[in-house]
Request: fold
Amino acid sequence: MSEDLEVEPGVTVGDWLMREFTTHYYLETEPWATERAARVVARLDPHRRSGDGGRALEVVIPWITAPLAFTAPGRFIFFGRRLYERCPDDETTAFVVGHEMAHHDLGHMDLMPEWMPRFAHAKGGRLAVVAMAAVERRLYGPERECLADEYALDLCMRAGYDPHRCLAFFHIMENYALDMGDQGMVFGPDEASDAELEPDAPWLTKARIWAWQRTYGYLPLRDRRARLEHYLRNRGVPERATA
Reply:
């Protein structure tokens, strides 16, 4: 890895990250994975809003241990192999990809400060990518992440995906979190609360969610899924039929 802590002129943060990935990680090349990613991008792309200058995006699948996906200024969406392998179909994959597209199309890339790649680079080698993802979560916060969730669900529906199958992503992540013993990731600081972002939420609830944000940068999985299910009901989308 270069000792220069600056991103070269004309090189996006995403390009720099891609260089880090190719230096320190293995990128998935198996057709079952790369073809699905390309298929999903091709289906979603015509239905995006014209954000980020209408830039075409590409999904790459690095073999990183953390089950995460993130993006950065440039043309790449980084969909970690550990997370990707847990998505069993195009619908769950499309929701994750749509969420990262949302950060481009909703202008969230403009929030990324110039010092961010230097901070990540200073962490060194394999930790650089995790550092970038961690800072990204702090920058966006739960409000923007919720907007990205809604945008992703809308985008998936415009592309013809079943929204309920897309939301199965949250069940997958809940199972992963509970297997890891991370109940907080699923339920958050208060299992009984699902109104952390409401303006009239009690101050104690707001204090709990502030502390939560310092750790995760997202709402708990149950709250994210519940908000999207409520969002679908408000749009008149029929609930999924049960056997």
In short: The beta strands are 58-60, 69-71, 76-79. Confidence is low (pLDDT under 50) at residues 1-7. The chain has one domain: 13-234.
